[in-house]
Amino acid sequence: MEEANHRAETERQWRERAEQEKRNADQRAWAGEENARRERERAEGERREREQAERRKAEAEEAMKQARIAREAAEVAAEKARVEQERSNKAAQEAMEEMKKAKDDLANGIQPVTWPTPEEYARTLQAYQYQEGKFHFAIAGLSGSGKSSLVNAFRGVLNQTASAAATGFTETTVVVGRYPDPNPEKPCVWYDVPGAGTLTIKDWDYFNKQGLYIFDAIIVLFDNRFTATDIAILRNCERWKIPAFIVRSKSDYQVENIKRTLVDSIEEDESLDEDEQASRLETVLDVAIEGYKSQTRQSVEKNLKDSGLGSQEVYLVSYKALLNTVRRKNTKNVLYLDEAKLLTRLVEAAKERHCPPASQQLGETSNMFARLTGSGKWSTSGFV
Ligand SMILES: Nc1nc2c(ncn2[C@@H]2O[C@H](COP(=O)(O)OP(=O)(O)OP(=O)(O)O)[C@@H](O)[C@H]2O)c(=O)[nH]1
Ligand SMILES: [Mg+2]
């Protein structure tokens, strides 16, 4: 029993030891797992921290990038504002200088050069009912110079008839009159333009104010005196490349006056015998015509030269002769001078120029300005 008890005791002790060992092994395994878990947690924590640090770094970099972009944008805006300011200062300075120059020029008798804006140009085309495919002729001149009569003659219409432009001794033409040619085969429209003297417009402003820049050809008509307005019109025609025709009206009346004076002087010249007087009287009309032609040409030439304009032909006409020429009548006792030549040249010149149609876009109109003036540019005050 003792031995059995001893064996049992030994077994129990073995068992206890084995159990203790198992507990120890379990304890070690648990500690190992615990360590591994802690290690995993620590690694996970480190990874998260690293990620957060990276995110924070990326955020900081992004913030810096945005700040740089904003700074650059602010710099660009500041530069733009500076350039704009400089530009507007320069424009203001130029405008001041221009104004001063214009004032000085005006004080020194030099007329300002003005251009209409593209909108004004388009409005004028519309107001004058500019029609593509037609020739638009303006007849401008002092009051009483014979504009309306000339319009009537060009249209083959007798003065004082129903469709005629009003004519007379009082100031009849105060607004621009538009007269399409009654002959359907002639695509011409005639404009009766009142002279500057009739209106409260300055000579130099007359051309633009009257919108003469849209015409295909312009007749500058005078009967006695060639005026500052006539010169201003011719100067503007040169700028706009519009064919201009200097025409002296009432030539029949002017020649008749010269002839009468010549007849008087021949008849009163006691140094001449009857035969000499008779032969002189026979040629008196030719002498009067020659005198009239040379006196007119010389006087116009001088006026053009004094104004710095190139020499130009002068057409001598009278209403009746022009009317007959248009109507293809060859009535006797009418003094024919340059009427036929004027008619031909007018149409030739108008065909060559021809203004752009009213339907064209403003942009195209401004291109036309550029073409006309060579190297112009648009400014807020128009084409300069
Ligand atoms: N002898 C002669 N008289 C003319 C001639 N042309 C015009 N006249 C006369 O001159 C006067 C004035 O002519 P108009 O045609 O009315 O002149 P206008 O330039 O239109 O005049 P306003 O409309 O007042 O500016 C009229 O009495 C005409 O008969 C011409 O060639 N010969
Ligand atoms: Mg008139």
From TrEMBL:
PANTHER family tied to this protein: INTERFERON-INDUCIBLE GTPASE, IRG-TYPE G DOMAIN-CONTAINING PROTEIN
Entry similarity comment: Belongs to the TRAFAC class dynamin-like GTPase superfamily. IRG family.
Molecular function in Gene Ontology: GTP binding; GTPase activity
Pfam families: IIGP
Record SUPFAM superfamilies: P-loop containing nucleoside triphosphate hydrolases
Domain IRG-type G positions: 133-340
Compositionally biased region (Basic and acidic residues): 1-26, 34-73
Record carries keyword GTP-binding: yes
Organism this protein belongs to: Dendrothele bispora (strain CBS 962.96)
Ranges where the record places region Disordered: 1-73
InterPro entries named in the record: G_IRG_dom, Immunity-related_GTPase-like, IRG, P-loop_NTPase
Superkingdom as given in the UniProt entry: Eukaryota
Coiled coil residues, start to end: none
Keyword annotations of the record: GTP-binding, Hydrolase, Nucleotide-binding
GO CC annotation: membrane
Protein name per Swiss-Prot or TrEMBL: IRG-type G domain-containing protein
